[in-house]
Automatic annotation (TrEMBL):
Limits of the Gfo/Idh/MocA-like oxidoreductase N-terminal domain: 3-118
Residue ranges occupied by any GFO/IDH/MocA-like oxidoreductase domain in the UniProt entry: 156-216
InterPro entries given in the database record: Gfo/Idh/MocA-like_OxRdtase_N, Gfo/Idh/MocA_Oxidoreductases, GFO_IDH_MocA-like_dom, NAD(P)-bd_dom_sf
Name used for this protein in its record: Oxidoreductase
Pfam families linked: GFO_IDH_MocA, GFO_IDH_MocA_C3
Natural source organism: Aureicoccus marinus
Signal peptide: none
Transmembrane segments: none
GO molecular function: nucleotide binding
Length: 323
């Protein structure tokens, strides 16, 4: 078993602590939180060991799980990597691209594994259809959330939209050609609502919308590709797959047939892939353990985390750029 330590014991950090303690692939050694009062509260509530010194925790583990505010991701990760420790780091990978590059370079030098916490890659609804996503040419995503002061210190693109940016980049095998976007600040100092249009060199277009001041929560993505429409509801963990094939010569009574202007007939049919329940956070943590033990590339590598950050920052930069 890999010995693990957690940096940060806030809302998400406490979830990671509990799941690492439950995992059969890790031995949870303890955690460090710079807020001593909070650290004592968490230690008393859960019984996990709170370390007074960050370096002492790093020295005693194989893996460091970084669940601190984004501004501290780089410094925490560098300290761990310098000591040859593998890292799990919550999204976004770092605050700047320069930090991400430095982190990746050092990880390569030290031969350590790193995974970024883009948890939607482990959402059971996405997993149910991932293998059916084949060169989508139009993607539309909506990630809407009710207002929560936590996270409003960063633009909604880095808080919410980056989840969908990562998913889109993972299924579109093509470089980004052009990005245009708009963002509006309603309550926060940074944009609370954003829309981005990402054009890829292969012709695919992704239209992403994110809001953190909505009246209801929504996390849906729709993928359009040749002869197929695939809808993923990340929140309700449901999928919808609609496909087309050449119509039979003699359609059945209940077959759904479409005919285009050229007279070509297609049959519409529906698939209902099984959505296997899981704990996405536990699965992403365990997947890093598998990558370490099997010497394979993590599902969401540090380089992929950097790519998602790069696109997110380009979207933010585009807010104030003339189209």
């Amino acid at each position: 078993m890999l010995k693990a330590g957690v940096l940060g014991a806030g809302h998400l950090g406490k979830i990671h602590l509990r799941l690492l303690a439950e995992s059969d692939q890790y031995e949870l050694v303890g955690f460090y939180d710079e807020d001593a009062i909070n650290a004592k509260r968490v230690a008393d509530e859960f019984g996990f060991r709170a370390f007074d010194n960050l370096n002492e925790l790093i020295d005693q583990v194989d893996v460091i799980d970084i669940v601190t505010p984004t501004l501290s991701h780089y410094q925490c990760a560098i300290k761990a990597i310098e000591k040859g420790k593998h890292i799990f780091i919550e999204k976004p990978i770092t605050n700047t691209l320069e930090e991400a590059k430095g982190l990746i370079d050092l990880a390569d030098q030290k031969h350590v594994k790193g995974q970024v916490g883009h948890v939607e890659r482990f959402n059971p609804a996405f997993l149910a259809v991932k293998d059916q996503l084949d060169q989508p040419m139009f993607i539309e995503t909506h990630r809407l959330a009710e207002f929560n002061p936590r996270g409003t210190d960063v633009p909604v693109v880095l808080d919410l939209m980056i989840h969908d940016i990562d998913v889109v980049l993972s299924v579109v095998n093509s470089p980004v050609k052009k990005i245009s976007s708009s963002g509006v600040s309603v309550i926060s100092q940074s944009p609370d609502i954003a829309n981005a249009r990402i054009e890829f060199e292969n012709g695919c277009v992704a239209n992403l919308t994110a809001s953190r001041i909505s009246l209801k929560n929504m996390r849906k993505s729709r993928f359009f590709q040749k002869d197929a429409y695939i809808s993923v509801d990340f929140l309700e963990k449901k999928v919808e797959v609609v496909k087309m094939k050449d119509a039979p010569t003699e359609p059945g009574q209940f077959d759904m047939i479409l005919q285009n202007a050229e007279g070509i007939k297609k049959q519409i049919y529906f698939e209902n892939p099984d959505v296997a329940p899981n704990n996405a956070i536990l699965d992403e943590l365990n997947s890093l353990a598998n990558a370490i033990e099997n010497n394979t590339t993590p599902v969401v590598s540090l380089k992929q985390g950097k790519q998602a950050l790069e696109v997110a920052l380009q979207i933010i930069e585009s807010f104030n750029s003339p189209s």
